[in-house]
Amino acid sequence: QVQLVDSGGGLVQAGGSLRLSCAASGRTFSSYHMGWFRQAPGKEREFLAAITWSGVNTYYADSVKGRFTISRDNAKNTVYLQMNSLKPEDTAVYYCAAKAYGSSWSPANHWEYNYWGQGTQVTVSS
Questions:
Q1: What is the spatial distance between Cα 39 and Cα 93, in angstroms, rounded to a whole number?
Q2: Per-residue pLDDT tens digits for 64-94
Q3: What is the torsional sign of CA 8, 9, 13, 18?
Q4: Which of 14, 115, 121, 122 is the most buried (most CB within 10 A)?
Q5: Taking Cα atoms as reference points, which of 50, 54, 53 lies closest to residue 68?
Q6: Is residue 29 classed as helix, strand or coil in its secondary structure?
Q7: Residues 6+ apart with CB under 8 A from 88
């Protein structure tokens, strides 16, 4: 089992940057693909980015491609989401998620992930 703790959210002006972190417990972090999602009030959970267990492959939603970067440090059991050029429409609660390696995986499908962080609020002011 994996426990995930999201952090790094906050209030930032449009055009600014934030880096989110997701710390995982357990010794099998490197056995999980990781993803970042967000959910704004009244909206469905939205896929942002994902990274394979090895860190070799990354995937991005069109809405954040070129602005957000996902990375991981398996030695630190942590996945990151670097967010640049933030816009007011990026305001949401951001969640990391873990998907066990070894079965088929569509990164954007939130229902395929096994574990979720508690979420961290990101607010972008105009």
A1: 5
A2: 999 999 999 999 999 999 999 999 999 999 9
A3: positive
A4: 122
A5: 50
A6: helix
A7: 14, 124, 125, 126
